[in-house]
Amino acid sequence: MVASLILTLVLLAGVSVMGSTLQSWAKNTTRVDAENEAAYAVRYIASQIQEAYIATVSTDGNTLTYYLPDKDDTGDYKTPLAKEASSRSFYVSNGALYEQSGEETRVLLSHIASTDPTIPGSDKSYRVFDAGQGVITHSVTIHLVTERQTRIAENMTRSRHRQLVYIRNAPETLQ
Fold first, then answer.
1. Is 110 helix (H, G, I), strand (E, B) or coil?
2. Could you say which DSSP state residue 153 is in?
């Protein structure tokens, strides 16, 4: 009788530990997925815009428009440097990050949060793209906050990524 009571208590404790472990596993799996997706998006944007000739950020900070340097038939930059005819852009709309090149638009990342809870004060909104100082943009800061619901309904997980990108081909003066 005592042995069966002890066995029952041990089994209940084991089931409880297993349940909390699975809950933690599900939460952390979602967090890792969100971190990886956001990190990939930031790295991808950085790799695209660091080669830019001209980059501009909208006043609300949700759109980054850029031009790559024009290239000749062999793929080399034309000299003197000049911008391509068509612009490219990244923009945030309705909780998703889009890439637009010519007529093509694709979703790069979803679950973009409109606020960053780590910002002090009552206004938690943030600028996804922020241009560096000066008339000509030589750097852009990318700041992404994603928010995803974990597999356990009551939990949300957030991911923050920020990267400063220097524009390598920006002209010294406007022409």
1. strand
2. T
| Residue 159 CB partners (closer than 8 Å, separation 6+) | 31, 34, 35, 37, 38, 144, 145, 146, 147, 148
| Of residues 135, 118, 115, the one with CA closest to residue 127 | 115
pLDDT tens-digit profile, the chain (175 residues): 888 888 888 888 888 888 777 777 767 777 788 888 899 999 999 999 998 888 999 999 999 999 988 888 888 888 777 788 789 999 999 999 999 998 899 999 999 998 888 888 878 889 999 998 877 788 999 999 998 877 665 677 888 899 999 988 877 755 5
- The pTM of this model reads 0.80
For residue 121, count other CB atoms closer than 10 A to its CB. Answer: 5
The radius of gyration of the chain from alpha carbons, rounded to an integer in Å, stands at 23
Residues in the chain: 175
> At residue 45, what is the residue type?
I
Beta strands 54-57; 88-93: pairing state: unpaired
C-alpha 164 chain-centroid distance? 13
Closest by CA to 165, choosing from 34, 66, 19, is: 66
